[in-house]
Amino acid sequence: MKVLFVCATPEEAVFSNLTDRPVNGTLSVIPHGLHQIDILVTGVGMTATAFQLGRQLLRNDYDLAVNIGVCGAFNHTFVGKVVDIRQDCFADFGAEDDEAFLDVFQTGLMDENAAPFINGLLYADYQLKENTSLKIPDVKGITVNKSSGNENTIDKLKSMYNADVESMEGAAFLYCCKMSHTPCIQIRAVSNLIEKRNRTAWKIQEALSALRLAVATMINAL
Q1: Angle (nearest 5°) at CA 131 between 129 and 135
Q2: Backbone angles phi, psi at 42, to 5 degrees
Q3: pLDDT digits (tens, 9 = 90+) for 119-143
C-alpha cells in the first residue's frame, strides 16, 4: 500500500522514525513493511496545500492520502482529542452582502453539486478500520483563510455551518484528493477552543502527542 501523509508544518509531521526534520515543500519517504509511507509538508493554508498536493498527485498515484495536523474546535467537547473530519467546506469563500455572507454557491458562481462537491460540501471517503484500537469521533469541519478569533465571526460560522472544528487546509486537501480520485481521510488533533485569540490556552504539544499516537496506530493497522 502506498500512503501519502500531508501536513502543513514540519511540527505536524509526527513520525518518530524520520531521520531528518522535513521542511515546507519537501517529501520524506519511510518504508514500513510492505507499505511505503510518503510525508508531504505543504506550508500553511489552502493555497500552499493545493499547489504542493496537486503537484504531488500529478506525479504519483496513492492508495490513500491522509491529512494530519492540529485544529481548533467550536466547543470544549473535542479539545485535546483526535478527530476524524468526515466533511468539510470552504467557509469564507464567497461575497459579503452588507452584514450577510453569501458563500460561492449562493452567489451563483459555482454549482454546489458540481464535482467534487455534494451540496457544497467535500467528504472524506476512506473509513478507518473498525478492528483497530483507533476509536476517534467523526466530526464536521470548516476551512478558512483567516483563523477565527472574533465573537461575531465565530457566532456567524456556528450558525451557518454547524461545524465542530476549523482548520486552514482541510477542504483544499479534500478537493485535490477528490479531483484526482485518491481515497482520502482527514485526521486532526484539537489544540484549542475557537474563541477570542488566547494563545496561552492553546495546548499544541498535547495535541501533537495525541496525534502522534493516532498516526502510529493507523500506520500499524495498514
Answers
A1: 70
A2: -95, -25
A3: 999 999 998 876 567 789 999 999 9
Maximum Cα interatomic distance, the chain, rounded to a whole number of Å: 57
| Whole-angstrom distance, CA of residue 137 vs CA of residue 180 | 27
Say how far apart CA 140 and CA 91 lie, in whole Å. Answer: 12
State the amino acid at position 40 in one-letter form: L
With b for 16 or more beta-carbon neighbours within 10 A and e for fewer, the 104-131 pattern comes to bbeeeebeeeeebbeebbbebebebeee
Would you state the cell numbers that stand for residue 84, as one nine-digit string? Answer: 476524524
C-alpha distances in angstroms, 125 versus 92, 178, 182, 220? 24, 9, 9, 20
pLDDT tens-place string over residues 164-204: 999 999 999 999 999 999 999 999 999 999 988 888 888 99
Tell me if the pTM is above 0.85.
Answer: yes
